[in-house]
Amino acid sequence: xxxxxxxxxxxxxxxxxxxxxxxxxxxxxxxxxxxxxxxxxxxxxxxxxxxxxxxxxxxxxxxxxxxxxxxxxxxxxxxxxxxxxxxxxxxxxxxxxxxxxxxxxxxxxxxxxxxxxxxxxxxxxxxxxxxxxxxxxxxxxxxxxxxxxxxxxxxxxxxxxxxxxxxxxxxxxxxxxxxxxxxxxxxxxxxxxxxxxxxxxxxxxxxxx
Length: 209
Known about the structure:
Elements: H1 8-32, E1 41-44, E2 48-55, H2 70-94, H3 99-125, E3 142-148, E4 151-154, E5 166-169, E6 172-173, H4 175-189, H5 191-208
Antiparallel strand pairs: 1-2, 2-3, 3-6, 4-5
Helix pairs in contact: 1-3, 2-3, 3-4
């Protein structure tokens, strides 16, 4: 008896759920918190805090400074990545890939779209585009709020390259970032199980032909 497959729309609904939660949290933060340290809320002492921060570029606030209109380039890249991930999810489903892998890709897709919405629309909707943007569309900044204060201090002199430098490890991220991170992490942990099933399905199809 052939096993009943999970409908593909359920995996896209996972992406929509991630997007909905991500955008809801961002709106709550934007309309109810003050930016920066003044509006900071301690959740677990100094280790975990809510901290309203806008990210003008990639992860951890990095920007493409060596390219003109780097923010626009980054937003267009995110748009292309969203289309590629969405198609990849569809192709994996067609191959009857492991359900866990499909869920992970759905989480990554939802996170990618969540941050893409910020980049495309927030410059207009929330008026948070950089001051020098030629147009606010595609120049919006990503809203981050989860602050984990891991470590801050001076690196020992004996450490190669970074020795003697002052460094702060305090990532500030959002629901979309967390969804992408968890999706990638689970794929790395269970890659043999996820991609092993795909190889078995491929061999089964070849044997039937």
